[in-house]
Write a structure and sequence with these properties.
It is a single chain. With about 270 residues, this protein is of the alpha/beta class. It folds into two domains: about 1-130, Fumarate Reductase Iron-sulfur Protein, Chain B, domain 2; about 140-270, FAD/NAD(P)-binding domain. It is about 40% helix and about 5% strand. Strands 3-2-1-4 form a four-stranded parallel beta sheet. The chain is globular and about 65 Å long. Bound molecules: iron/sulfur cluster. Iron/sulfur cluster (SF4) binds near residues 43, 61, 117 and 119. InterPro entries: DPD_II, FAD/NAD-bd_sf, FAD/NAD-binding_dom, Helical_ferredxn. It holds the Pfam family Pyr_redox_2.
């Protein structure tokens, strides 16, 4: 461990601030292989791996980091995908500093959470290497069951992938004209490029998931109609938390005052 503690935390490369002023491209540009392997070597491979307990989906973190240190990024990605279907997204926008990295032994040793192993950056590194390849999850033989997924945000995508993997006939109904839910309307391009989200959704269509946009369940068809008349055996509702909670501040209903959700939707999805 003493030698590992001597390896400096690898900073995330980022766009030059002067160039960044005039574009909305992603700020962080991602680790190179050298960065990734050095960062992976900082991991102590703790027996108890407290990082895993800090991960909401219990990814085998120390094993995927060991694979990166060995130069086997494909194996690392396969390990992540056992538990998480959106590594390129989660590697970018998960709050690792209060989850897996908060409990990392290296950060605790230095009494500084910013010196923990950069698990999120490593996850993003292996996911981005796969961006030009087509690792489509395999699909079990047809079960004859139909599943409707309402909403194409992260919850809907994961539910659609899991149910399709199990061999069901899956259709996603999206109210907006674009898929991706909060990942598209709620997170700006410089933080999570829309192309990354569309790539993940492209994998769904390659798996045979059908996607219907501009379809408001409850207006166009009710859940009851979907199940009783359209032949769906199950419905998953993943519509997000779209309704804002106003604070009751004076003048908050004036023209030009927006809820965060409305503001982000206008800026990110409608370019308004
Ligand atoms: S807690 Fe930190 S050092 Fe230990 S296995 Fe997890 S990432 Fe590696």
């Amino acid at each position: 461990p003493a030698d590992r503690y001597k390896i400096l935390p690898q900073d995330m490369p980022a766009q030059d601030p002067v160039k960044r002023r005039s574009n909305v491209n992603e700020v962080a540009t991602g680790y190179t292989e050298t960065h990734a392997r050095l960062e992976a070597m900082r991991c102590l491979q703790c027996k108890t791996a407290p990082c895993i307990k800090g991960c909401p989906v219990q990814i085998r973190i120390k094993d995927f980091i060991a694979a990166i240190a060995d130069g086997d990024s494909k194996k690392a990605l396969a390990i992540i995908k056992e538990n998480s279907l959106l590594p390129a997204v989660c590697g970018r926008v998960c709050p690792q500093e209060v989850q897996c990295q908060q409990t990392c032994t290296v950060g605790l040793k230095f009494k500084d959470p910013t010196k923990a192993v950069s698990i999120g950056r490593l996850e993003r590194f292996v996911a981005d290497l796969d961006q030009n390849q087509d690792s489509v999850p395999s699909v079990a033989p047809d079960t004859g069951m139909k599943v409707a997924i309402i909403g194409s945000g992260p919850g809907g995508i994961v539910a659609a992938t899991d149910t399709r993997r199990a061999g069901h006939d899956v259709t996603i109904f999206e109210a907006f004209h674009k898929t991706g839910g909060v990942m598209v309307y709620g997170i700006p391009e410089f933080r999570l490029p829309k192309a990354i989200v569309q790539k993940e959704i492209g994998i769904l269509t390659k798996m045979g998931v059908k996607i219907v946009c501009n379809f408001i369940v409850g207006r166009i068809r009710t859940i009851e109609q979907l199940m009783k008349e359209d032949g769906f055996d199950a419905v998953y509702i993943g519509v997000g938390a779209g309704l804002p909670r106003f604070m009751g501040i004076e003048s908050e209903s004036l023209v030009g005052v927006y809820s965060a959700n409305e503001y982000l939707t206008r800026a990110n999805l409608m370019k308004a």
